[in-house]
Amino acid sequence: MDECIMQLEHATVRRSGVPILDDISFQVKRNEHVAIIGPNGAGKSTLVQLLSEEIHPLYSPRTKRILFGKAKWEVLSLRAHLGIVSQSLQYLCNSSYKGWEIVISGFFSSIGLDFHHHCNDRQMQKMEETMHRYDAWHLRDKQMNRMSSGEARRILLARANVHDPQVMLLDEAVSNLDFPSRSQYRSTLEQLDREGKTIILATHELSEIIPAINRIVVMQHGRIVADGPKREILNEQLLSEVYQTKVFIDEREGLFSAWC
Ligand SMILES: Nc1ncnc2c1ncn2[C@@H]1O[C@H](COP(=O)(O)OP(=O)(O)OP(=O)(O)O)[C@@H](O)[C@H]1O
């Protein structure tokens, strides 16, 4: 049986007194890939933040969060297993650090380098290789706060991968990328799949869901309302109900697109 590497049971998150996630249970097995979809405000980013311990569930005797077999983590040790791309991280990285400093800081789970971070030759080489892979090497000496949002997103993708994490948590990772960069990003997801990584992505962009991602979780109003194989879940009736408007779905060469 495949090992469960991420497990949430009965997790509730409140913000400003309002339940944002409502009694969520969610498990991911090693090498399983999951796409989380749902309307704006459904709770997708909050679920991803729970998995990266950016936020915590409310205490209840039934609530569990077990990540890589452990209920308690020192957050920097946990982050060594994760590659994270999100809007909130991009905001934090919007600094005077140069592109290469942000990428290499993925080894230290920091934002940029501090006086106590010492990069060895292997880390420098991995940083360079990863920046080439994301077509970001030309941005190495550019300050983050002088980059376009698409350029900064490429730097974040490289940072998320540089330390070879087990799980990629990608929240709207393609937003602001141009068409060729999206295609390149899909190739990277395929490469991550071949390397045996687990991919968890939250997205509005169905074309980001590469054929290797077969499980779709649908969220609405802070709850998981559907969870299953892609071809069962990506149907017009279900999505029209969740988005409360007529949704059309198309499939081409194993990739889906939706519009209304
Ligand atoms: N810091 C906060 N304080 C109060 N409410 C918040 C906070 N952050 C998020 N929320 C609310 O939590 C709900 C879920 O937000 P979340 O970002 O998880 O949704 P999402 O499904 O990722 O949305 P989107 O598709 O728009 O990115 C939203 O109603 C949002 O307004």
Automatic annotation (TrEMBL):
Entry-linked SMART domains: AAA (SM00382)
Keywords (A to Z) from UniProt: ATP-binding, Nucleotide-binding, Transport
The cross-references to Pfam families, in alphabetical order and at most eight, read: ABC_tran
Q: Does the keyword Cell cycle apply?
A: no
The UniProt record lists the ABC transporter domain at: 6-246
Q: Name one GO molecular function term.
A: ATP binding
Annotated InterPro entries: AAA+_ATPase (IPR003593), ABC_transporter-like_ATP-bd (IPR003439), Metal_Ion_Import_ABC (IPR050153), P-loop_NTPase (IPR027417)
| Record protein name field | ATP-binding cassette domain-containing protein
Which organism is this protein's natural source?
A: Sphaerochaeta associata
